[in-house]
Design a protein that fits this description.
Layout lengths: L5 E3 L2 E3 L4 E6 L6 H6 L3 E7 L7 H11 L3 E6 L5 H20 L12 H21 L6
Antiparallel strand pairs: 1-2, 3-4, 4-5
């Protein structure tokens, strides 16, 4: 069984640009977890990638760095962790490439303004009641 290729937007990531490393997963698990290198770290270096420059620039602007790294150690299977790491890398890159929807400015409603004023008035009364009486 072959791992699925990593396609980000319209660009397919070549296998030789992905760097995988394996380590023992942390956390509980007894003898089995400590002996098997099933946790996966997957990296892609944006400085040496064949990705179109506009995509690289956008990812770099959104993420702020050149080396994109994801890890997966959820499963006891190295194969499953490799697939999870690829899915996480794909999601990270796609989220960085997604354009943010422009914000449409809104104005507070009359009712929300009135609620705010009422709350301020009530708070003021509460504080006023805590003061020492004037005729004391």
């Amino acid at each position: 069984m072959i791992l699925p290729g990593l396609v980000v937007g319209e660009w397919e990531v070549p296998e030789d640009e992905l760097e995988e490393s394996f380590d023992t997963p942390g956390g509980p698990g007894g003898q089995h977890a400590n002996r098997n290198k099933t946790a996966v770290t997957l990296r892609i270096d944006l400085r040496t990638t064949s990705m179109p420059p506009a995509m690289v620039r956008r990812i770099r602007d959104r993420l702020g760095y050149d080396l994109v790294t994801v890890s997966a150690g959820d499963s006891r299977s190295q194969w499953r962790n490799r697939a999870l790491a690829r899915a996480r890398l794909k999601k990270t890159l796609e989220d960085a490439l997604r354009e943010a929807k422009p914000r449409r400015p809104t104005r507070p409603t009359r009712a929300s303004k009135q609620r705010r004023i009422d709350t301020k008035r009530k708070r003021s009364e509460t504080k006023k009641d805590r003061r020492r009486p004037e005729d004391w």
